Amino acid sequence: MKHSLLYIAAAALAASAALSSCDDNFTHPPVITPPCIDVEPSMPLLDFKTEYWSALSTPTEIPYYENGDTLILTGRVCSSDESGNIFKSIVIQSVDDEGNQTAVNLSVNSYDLYKLFPYGQEVAVYASGMTVGGYRNLFQFGAANESEMTFMDVDFFKAHVTRNGSALPEPGKVDIFTTTIADINAAKADNTTLMKWQSRLIRIDGVEFVDAGQPCAPTQTMNRYVRDADGNRINVRCSSYSSFKNELLPYGTGSVVGILSYYNNDWQILLNGWDGLIDFDGEAPEPVEPVDPAGEGTLESPYNVAKVLELIRSGNNTDSEVYIKGIVSDISEIGGSYGNATYTIVDKKGLEAFTIFRGYYLNGDKFTSADQLKAGDEVVVLGKLINYNGTPETAQGSKIISINGQGGATPPASSTAPAGEGTSESPYNVAKALEVIASGNIPATEVHVKGIITTIDEIDTGNFGNATYKIADSKGETEFLIYRGYWLEGAKFTSADQLKAGAEVVVLGKLINFMGNTPEMEKGNKIVSYNGEGGTTGGETPAPVADYTCAKVNAITSGDTYVLVVDSQFGAAIAASSSFGRLSLTDAAMTAGTFDVAAANVITITEEAGKGYTLKDSFGRYLSMDNEHPTAFQLYTDLKDGCYWDATFDTDGKLKLTNKLATDCFVCVSKGTEGTYYTNIAPAKTPAEFKLPELYKATKK
């Protein structure tokens, strides 16, 4: 019933009374135990995470069942904030009959949650009415804050969570999943395993601390890495508010036990307490003679690592790029889809390391092979110094100038003088934009900046439709970051090929110095001129590249190309880098019932005899489904069971695409629990209210 929370309170009081009155020996005081109930879950925790995993990008309130009952989850607390290392969170886990552990994080605006629900306590979560979503890609219960999550109110938390089964904790029943760093890193490969692994309580054996002998986190929260015998490593996140902040990281090899949390796009282990470090019995090595800070930060006299660490810790970070020299001590990642590398350098073995974060190869080229860099190499790196959440490192985008004394050409000094007024008639050049930001006299209004595109970091053609890229006055000169900006006159990007390196752009937006060390143009900016098209004075703006003309049809011709349309908005393509997603609704500029789209947005619909229809996008991926994700397309390059659809038209000419594998799911724009329709076309599982799409045939011009 919707009044289930009243039931919780009543049951808890009754249980409390029963437990406190069951001791008839009046020579001893009665045992006082906390309120407790005894309920079974209405859904396994793994099934729950599977069904609501799509909330990672869109916070979702858990509905009540049609009969008014609440959804009940049960689990055992596997975290503890007693040491202060875990912040305003509690993690619960469940283990299925096959021994598979599933866990979920609850974000609560309160400290000392261990007093309310200690480690090992079984709890029941009355989930209906609660909200799930993501914070920096970690799935969790909490409160919605636009597209991300924040902490739920503690009284709300107490109203929905109670002790279950036993009023007292049973720490011995907590499951600890033993694994390896290699398997943890591999778990990021697809969304299904990422979902299953997030928030587990894990144990990793045979690892050593990279910074052994250093205080854990004496003045600021630190990333402390452990590595295995193969060089794989993972972050052990240590809080400066923890009771063990001044403990020295142990020498030798041992085991680490903690919560496998997730931040942005990487794992981090959160220790429940210092006892999560087990059997590290190594002795401290003979001290290494320290190296004095040295260097001027120039090519002729690069900073050494000691100097870099001294500068950052004194607060003297650099707004400009500097040269740094050191010996590669550890490589955490290299290559991949972005072609960059994260590694550490030292002045000599045994001394403190400095992190080069997602930097590039010689003169800014992408890494193409894992053997281009190895431990022991002496490198000179050009990059900006930052203090990222307590970790001294280079800002993303640094580049190697030389390896073991060998390198490419010396980057030329900037030859472009600052110029421009920041207006549409006289835009700033990049040198001027950087000069204005460095001066601290940053305009509060939007300005125009002109430059050549040098690097394209990301073009999102999905829900957000924005792009992050860099511009410069000319190739080889200092770059300026354009962060999450939009296409001409603020339109969303719909194709990954709309931006090209070498193109000249004029961009309108606000200048900022992000975190005091990254000059950039603030999110939400827009291109007003691309290779001279569009004009810097607000003239006629060309539309994005449109290769196909679309017109409505009421039948499918196998092998033809189409787009789906709802309320004069078409479903734009899912980003090329994604393995799942939804078609983002984008305004269609209708003229006499037709409109144009870029080639990236068309879908080829083909009938397979006896199987149904397939939907193949412009990137060669089948829009498909599986049994675990009822509200998003899964994208496969090979045909699988979930790739086939039934297609029927209703009397109004609307198309219903029903998946042959997940037969209770069909493609539509569905209404969310807050009473508004979503802004995408996607599968939905028997939605109460929805809009079916119309089918428009896309004919190449």
Strand content: 35-45%
Structural class, from secondary structure content?
mainly beta
Q: What is the residue-averaged pLDDT?
A: 86
Helix share bin = under 10%
**Number of discrete helical segments:** 8
Radius of gyration: 28 Å
Cα(first) to Cα(last) distance is 58 Å
Any low-confidence stretches, pLDDT <50, length ≥5?
1-26, 409-413, 535-545
Quaternary organisation of the protein chains: single chain
Largest sheet: 11 strands, antiparallel
Shape: globular
Number of DSSP-assigned strands:
48
Give a description of the structure.
With 701 residues, this protein is mostly beta strands. It is 10% helix and 38% strand. It has 8 helices and 48 strands. It starts with a helix and ends with a strand.
Secondary-structure blueprint:
Layout: H1 4-20, H2 45-52, E1 60-61, E2 72-77, E3 89-95, E4 101-107, H3 113-116, E5 122-126, E6 131-135, E7 138-145, E8 148-150, H4 154-160, E9 161-163, E10 177-179, H5 181-186, H6 191-197, E11 201-209, E12 222-227, E13 233-238, E14 254-263, E15 266-270, E16 277-278, H7 305-313, E17 322-335, E18 340-346, E19 354-362, E20 378-383, E21 385-388, E22 391-394, E23 399-403, E24 406-407, E25 428-429, H8 430-439, E26 447-459, E27 467-472, E28 480-488, E29 504-509, E30 511-514, E31 518-521, E32 526-530, E33 548-553, E34 560-566, E35 569-572, E36 580-581, E37 583-587, E38 594-597, E39 603-608, E40 612-616, E41 622-624, E42 633-636, E43 645-649, E44 655-659, E45 665-670, E46 680-685, E47 690-691, E48 694-700
